[in-house]
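Provenance and format

Records in this collection were gathered into a single text stream. Each protein contributes a sequence line and a token line. The two records reproduced below are adjacent in the stream.
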Amino acid sequence: DCIKANAKSCGECIQAGPNCGWCKKPDFLQEGEPTSARCDDLAALKSKGCPMTEIENPRGSQQVLENREVTNRKKGAAEKLKPEAITQIQPQKLVLQLRVGEPQTFSLKFKRAEDYPIDLYYLMDLSYSMKDDLENVKSLGTALMVEMEKITSDFRIGFGSFVEKTVMPYISTTPAKLRNPCTGDQNCTSPFSYKNVLSLTSEGKKFNELVGKQHISGNLDSPEGGFDAIMQVAVCGDQIGWRNVTRLLVFSTDAGFHFAGDGKLGGIVLPNDGKCHLENNVYTMSHYYDYPSIAHLVQKLSENNIQTIFAVTEEFQPVYKELKNLIPKSAVGTLSSNSSNVIQLIIDAYNSLSSEVILENGKLPKGVTISYKSFCKNGVNETQEDGRKCSNISIGDEVRFEINITATECPKKEQNETIKIKPLGFTEEVEIYLQFICECECQGEGEPNSPICHDGNGTFECGACRCNEGRIGRLCECSTDEVNSEDMDAYCRRENSTEICSNNGECICGQCVCKKRENTNEVYSGKYCECDNFNCDRSNGLICGGNGICKCRVCECFPNYTGSACDCSLDTAPCMASNGQICNGRGTCECGTCNCTDPKFQGPTCEMCQTCLGVCAEHKDCVQCRAFDKGEKKETCSQECMHFNMTRVESRDKLPQPGQPDPLSHCKEKDVDDCWFYFTYSVNANGEANVHVVETPECPSGPDIIPIVAGVVAGIVLIGLALLLIWKLLMIIHDRREFAKFEKEKMNAKWDTVSQEAF
């Protein structure tokens, strides 16, 4: 990626990727290499000979500017903190220095404070169908105050009402209907769009008093103008009296709603401007501006940290549940037909909203991305969209978010940016100042109009020339008008050659700039681009066998390797035989392989000999004749067996053991008397053979005759007794069978006699 970026300056290089560095060493480039070759990954630059001190590689960082600890306070504590002194999110301000492609990660902590102040504004539909509901709401102030004291000691409540736009066809505009839109003897107030009846107050009795004076109004169509009212409640913060605390808006109705576009029915085409238009606490521009869209409402509710509770009847539950899915930090409760359950509905909805924290960030600058990972209660961790939120949070619980911010490009004007992250429905936020690393430090040390850059035609910075407009070349030596001049091409041809830059580059300002290969590891170089690093001899499918570097089509081998493809190893370790000799002393080691010179021997170390005796068998007769004066070579011992030094030892334990420097063979052989004798055979570094032999052979003792004879006799007697017992047993069985047969015949004879007498 670094090379493909074709960076002409250090700034362009570091924007190509987080692993790209720029070598500012002046003599770093080889002949034919473009300025962009200074930009590469750190390992490649280092391998090309650029010291780490000469590599520009700025990294991103972060600094916390404000880091107040989250508030630990119990309900009913002696100290009374102002809302702005309570901290639920940490840190509050930080600076991130971002380099393109390099993420910066920081941790954000959120803790629900106990006894946190609450502002609740009750916005009620006063169309005729809500008549019985109004009676129950009149006593809502004091009753709700009592219930909310269980949650917070700082609670304020306000009240507003809405009906519909005051134009046809939403209401009847006849004078009589404008005075009293209800039929019969019903006493109803004139229709209106939205009224702020009571700004937020801590006096519950005042709420009851003012709400008690309200009267039902009426309109023609079923959907109501509630969206106009919600918009004004959200944006008229001063008139409503919102504080920077938990803000709840309870929207109570038994009907649907109009939204953007519906105003055309009344001839209203101007889109809602999202601004406050309250005069004497009444919305005065309902006839001028259309209803707000759902997206517009979402934006304003979020900007003003308002959490919405829709208290609607069973009939309209499906509609408002769909609306809830579009409005973050909102809840829906089922309102009874006369609003008798409104207090419990508010308590349940508040608990549901406050048990979930959802992080929201403002609009991101172009080229900046953000991701979240949540660390919630009970070890629940989430990423992606679910990483923004944690659920089932109780008062006093602490959760953590890991936020990752990455720049994918530098802003065009290189200006700093600010983004804000906040939990939905809360006024606190984290302010993040973004500073972008788009230039290298060495660029600030550049020399404008430097004489190095062809008499001042460029700025010499970071080891290279950044050419002025209209100039080109490594040293800005040419103007753009001269680039295609045929006179310049002559400087780019080798002697006796017609090829410009060896057909591997292009001629710019009389100098070859070698072209790049698709594989960025393959590079053309040289004054005429005649060299490359990929057309060297290969071995095992690898350039230079993987044991060298290809420079200008010739392999430069690593130490211990030689050959045109660096495929010849000078290491003799693979040729070392088990006796410590190279090729067993019977061959030469060539390129790490034994070339056996003795035709009887073969194998990787010339140790295999199909027709040879082993060391022990080979020296058995000589050891026997010299140590014990017997054996086949007894008569010729002094002539044939004096080629080794012999040492006698008392026992096998005294024989040399494995681990000594000289190769050693342990032998066990039989002599002419069938006795075992033990010896070792070794050859030292000087080629001298040494034999150590146990001085006393182990001869097998003769058999003990008496036990053998006694055992044989005892065995014969026992076998005879066993046969006799078996014969006796068989005879007893036979006699018993014969006796039984006799008894049976005897009984038959008696029966015959008795039968004859009877006749």
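Adjacent record:
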Amino acid sequence: VKNKAPAEVQITAEQLLREAKERELELLPPPPQQKITDVEELNDYKLRKRKTFEDNIRKNRTVISNWIKYAQWEESLKEIHRARSIYERALDVDYRNVTLWLKYAEMEMKNRQVNHARNIWDRAITTLPRVNQFWYKYTYMEEMLGNVAGSRQVFERWMEWQPEEQAWHSYINFELRYKEVDRARSIYERYILFTLLVIVHPDVKNWIKYARFEEKHSYFAHARKVYERAVEFFGEDHMDEHLYVAFAKFEENQKEFERVRVIYKYALDRIPKQDAQNLFKNYTIFEKKFGDRRGIEDIIVSKRRFQYEEEVKANPHNYDAWFDYLRLVESDADAETVREVYERAIANIPPIQEKRHWKRYIYLWVNYALYEELEAKAKRTRQVYQACVELIPHKKFTFAKIWLLYAQFEIRQKNLPLARRALGTSIGKCPKNKLFKGYIELELQLREFDRCRKLYEKFLEFAPENCTSWIKFAELETILGDIDRARAIYELAISQPRLDMPEVLWKSYIDFEIEQEEYEKTRNLYRRLLQRTQHVKVWISFAQFELSAGSEESLSRCRQIYEEANKAMRSCEEKEERVMLLESWRTFEEEFGTDVTKERIVKLMPEKIKKRRKLQAEDGSDAGWEEYYDYIFPEDTANQPNLKLLAMAKLWKKQQQESEAAEMDPDKDIDESES
């Protein structure tokens, strides 16, 4: 095509098809009808038709449709012997063709050739015994003819081939149609026997159908036996919820509610929870209909147990799920079940030996031991504690709580040597402050003071910076009346190079000396403390101590301490601390001082002024201005001329403002002069 440009008028495929339909281009005229008037024309027509069929068969013998058309044409002419001959020739070509056998047998049956039809069905089921359609047609024909015995005989021959499930049920339904219940039962038994021995159909629904058959015919004892045999056959490895649901509903229909409850519980305890949803549902409905409050609660517990099982199966190291699961089991189950769940829980050891991963896990052991002690015997509790302390990697970390609980358990069992041995082992393997404190508290309760002293010595060797331990040790000696020993302990404590709370230790030592009314030693302690720190609270405490000493010189000593403190605090950068000291001093003078001392302390009080300072951001850029309060002390003003100059400037500015105000209001000055 040289001109490839599109035509001016475009024609679509739809338009072409529509025009072809309208013009009826593809319709062929029907062939003319031929009327046969005599026998010769009929014979001639038959000859030509047969020749056509034979030619088609000769071209391709394997096309069975040609044979069937040929035979059906002969049948339409009532030439049964010719049609039979054609079918036989076709079977020689392909005897496995199911359609051929069916058409052949149907032809004989339509023409009431019963014996011929039986012969064909016999040949068919002998040649192709696995084609169920032959058996169905054969048995149906015999039954329609009223030959029940013959139909039963055909069914028996069929059953020898161990056919599919529907064949057995067809045989059973056949017997039931003629009220042969015993025969139907025997067929069910044979069917189940095949299930047991040959395992052709190991399906639950076959057993359920058998049981329902017995129930339908009011043989309830037989039905129950069928269910029991089914449960025994499938066992615990191949349990199916449908069997137990059907069994329970059967018992429910017989008003055997306790049996129903036992069946449901037995199944729920053994079937995997994800396969028992329908079982749960039916059990819940049953309990709501016939159960009491306890039964309904059992159902709810079972559902929650299933949920927890799924959670711990998805993540065995989810210890919170284990705690919830154990709490549920403890409230409802027996001891063996609870113990089994605990063993499963503690078997999930944290994969990493870091204490933060073990903190939740260790409480599984704690709860397990407490449960055994409260619910079971002491021997198992001891085994739980021992297994736990052996499991913990003490070289990396330990849990003092476990050791202390173990020791307290042994004390409750009146086994003091084992308790001491456990705590001693814990201190030897993994010393901790909490372990020492717990051991010391135990010995204090037992009034074993010598052991307490030895433990405190070991404790302080382990942690010499622990001020609380020093204080408790000294308090113990004080209670026991050994003052010199207590004082020596305090001296050792304050001489340590590193302490975690030195201020608490010094305060305790000072309070100790005050209680012993050793005021001179207390003063020395304050002096020694002030050599180490010039904190304002120490000065105030020193002054208050002198005030409370109760001697004649208390006021003068107290005032002297305040004087020293004020001189020492002049160089302090924290002006708030100095203000705190002066306020404490002023309070003292207001209560015990004279007018002169009061006036003096008032002069020492600072002036509070507002100032501004420039702020800088982290990157060094300007961040604006900030207002803050500062204190100007009179003593510092005298020593700093700049501050004095600043005060004079403020005074001049004030006078300047007053003079300007006077110039602005001259009438007021005249009135004042006249008056």
